[in-house]
Write a structure and sequence with these properties.
This protein has a seven-stranded mixed sheet, with helices on both faces. Strands 9-10-13-12 form a four-stranded antiparallel sheet. The two termini are about 20 Å apart. The chain has helices at about 10-15, 35-40, 40-50, 55-70, 85-100, 110-120, 140-145, 170-180, 195-200, 205-215, 240-255, 260-275, 280-295, 325-335, 365-380; strands at about 20, 80, 105, 125-130, 150-155, 185-190, 220-225, 235-240, 300-305, 315-320, 335-340, 340, 355-360. The protein is of the alpha/beta class and about 375 residues long. The longest helix has 18 residues, at about 280-295. It comes from Streptomyces alfalfae. Keywords: Aminotransferase, Pyridoxal phosphate, Transferase.
Amino acid sequence: MTEHLLDLTQHEIQALKTRFNLADAHTHQQQSPGQREIVQALPALWYEAEESRQADLEDRFKEVFFRLHGQNSVRAESTMLSYAASISTLVAGMYLRRNEISVSLVEPCFDNLPDVLRNVGVHPVPIPEDTLHDADRIYDRLAEAVTTDALFLVDPNNPTGFSLLSHGRKGFEEVIRYCVDHDKLFVVDLCFAAFALADPRFGRFDLYQLLDTSGVRYIALEDTGKTWPLQDAKCALLTCSRDLHEDVYNIHTSVLLDVSPFVLNFLARYVEDSIEDGMASVRDVITRNRETALKTLEGSLLEHLEPTVNVSVAWFRITDDTIKASELQAHLTAYEVYVLPGTYFYWNEPERGERYVRIALARDPQEFAQSLTRLREAVDSYGA
């Protein structure tokens, strides 16, 4: 039974067995024309990786990744690579624990973050996301709310799609100004940042230039895993300020040696493909599927909550106050439809999450439309 599962990942494992899997945010859409050409070239990329130095492949991947994202001030030597964002988060958590640094973590967010921190002995304190919603009050609200040594944010946030970019540069500037003035370590999960890049309303400014010139102590986490349809072959990036680098690097090398050179080689091609198409392969499928979800669920008991950034997940509020997300989710599984209840995202107060469900959008549009039709049928049958 789903009510006995401990975290969202366990739910996602069950969802992988389900016909209409709308749970995990991993990329399940088909390849674009440009990406199909990369797949056809995989044997050549394999042998190319065999003949290349690991360091050269790492440097090339970092260069194209940060060039795509417009983060041109990043020093390659300040960035460490791992094969999953969870590993980068683990390294950051180990650094926090080793230095007895207490942490305020945004709520809601994906429950993997507080779980990883707790598993290494760091017990996060919640900071409500709405603390960041008013640019003119961010500094004062953080000064009132944060009682820990570090501030850990997710931007854009998963599941809500909120981003400090809604305030232009000012949102990040105010957070960083607060951290500098109050001597706080700033930890930021940017694993959904590609969706801000793909969203024509936003894009990204060079955040690392702001970080490095401000004097703030920081750890920044980025990822490829939620961006391209890579069969879960991926690479995560951990970048930190100069004063933290030696300590973080020593922890990082205790965890792993490197990322597969073959994976780095073909990932770089995917990044280059997105540079060439202006992120269209990422943006178009998410936009199309969000429109399908809104149209199909219009008038149902699920109300779409508009995200700041068009991320690869959709956050819905249950309009009937008598229906709990956990109960609705259990009902949907009987129809072979799997969504995630909001309870786990509200990692400190799960009851607050009973008002919400999350639907993943990174799916083949035709299959997604079929899943949404089935979801609407299941939702309408609840309590009937």
